[in-house]
Design brief:
Blueprint lengths: L4 H11 L6 H10 L8 H8 L4 E5 L2 E6 L5 H17 L1 H12 L4 H22 L7
Antiparallel strand pairs: 1-2
Helix pairs in contact: 1-2, 2-4, 4-5, 4-6, 5-6
């Protein structure tokens, strides 16, 4: 129900995070009603940011992400691209991963996953973003 008090409250919580604007928040609230109601592993798998490793016996493949809700995954990715520049916590996380030798796209996916987990916790606890 767009426009309901619960919808607006959830949207305000989501937009309190640096890097999340009105378009991303509306996408999350509309297309991800489970936000704040399930655990971080379930929410990342639901959206498609849970890493899966291909392996069989001694053969070890690479980890990958996939599936999930495409619109939500794309919105979180856009938010991660903004957050890695303007959110001090996620910027430090991204810079640390790149300094450790991770490719930039892998680090950006990790930022997107962390952003989703942060958003889930913010909605679950009903507490807006606070800089640490």
């Amino acid at each position: 129900m767009q426009g309901s008090p619960a919808w607006r409250a959830k949207e305000e919580l989501v937009t309190s995070v640096p890097g999340i604007g009105p378009v991303i928040s509306r996408t999350l609230v509309a297309d991800l009603p489970e936000l704040g109601q399930i655990g971080h592993k379930q929410i990342t798998a639901l959206v498609g940011y849970a890493p899966f490793t291909r392996q069989s016996g001694k053969w070890r493949g690479k980890s990958f992400i996939g599936g999930g809700r495409t619109a939500v995954r794309a919105a979180i990715f856009m938010g991660a691209m903004v957050a890695k520049k303007h959110n001090p916590v996620l910027k430090a996380f991204f810079d640390r991963l790149v300094a450790a030798g991770k490719p930039k796209l892998v680090a950006l996916i990790a930022v997107a996953r962390k952003l989703l987990i942060i958003l889930n916790a913010i909605v679950r606890d009903n507490r807006p973003w606070q800089n640490a």
